[in-house]
Amino acid sequence: MRIFSPKQLLRAIVFWLLALQTAPAGAADDDPERQASDLRVPSNYAFEVLRNGRKIGEHRIMVTALEDGFQVNVRIDLQVNLGPLPVYRYTHENEEIWKAGQLVSIETKTNENSREFKVSGTQTTDGFQVRGLEGEVVVPADILTSTYWNKETVARTAMLDTQRGLMFTYQTADPVYDADNSGQKYALTGDLTIDLWYDAYRLTRMAFDNNGALIEYLPFDTES
Hints:
The protein is mainly beta. The protein has one domain. 10% of the residues lie in helices and 54% in strands. The chain has helices spanning 6-21, 32-37, and strands at 45-51, 54-66, 69-82, 85-99, 102-112, 115-124, 127-132, 135-139, 158-160, 167-172, 176-178, 183-190, 194-198, 203-210, 213-220. It has a 15-stranded antiparallel sheet that branches. The longest helix is centred in the N-terminal third of the chain and has 16 residues, at 6-21. Mean pLDDT is 85; it is low at 12-28.
């Protein structure tokens, strides 16, 4: 077996580092699997939704790599019962296409107690054009959505309401570390009031008040 001197080993390490630096630009950037993994969101990520501690449904986020970006699909399915009778029903489906860190299109449909909402939007030269409850509006090209999976949400002051196609404006308080939930807790106030928890990269929990009831989103393992 050949034994290398310290000088030979050092030269080999330098050559290896230079090879990494001179790899073809975009070789990794064009990899759709890498782009999807950079979201720090598992491809099958889900919350169970609780109302005052009782499960009323699920909220799922699915990320799919595309050739030049990624697709985010959101599905929310909720039902509140009074005894054996359903008194509230809510479903929401959302498809987002992202390229180069920007939302390029969105299509959503919502049914809230038989009242239907639809939102569609696409990136244009003037900004992101949205068609929703109030007709067509143009919002900033770098707008984020009210699906909260992107941690950048807490660094912004506005987002697109994916149910109605309107703009939410808000402020975010300084984060507080919550050891029980293994993440940073951010309190958003303004057009919406909600607490969001994130670990280093992704959403781990949500909570808000709805007409005096505590609504909580807690993650669960979709493989179990």
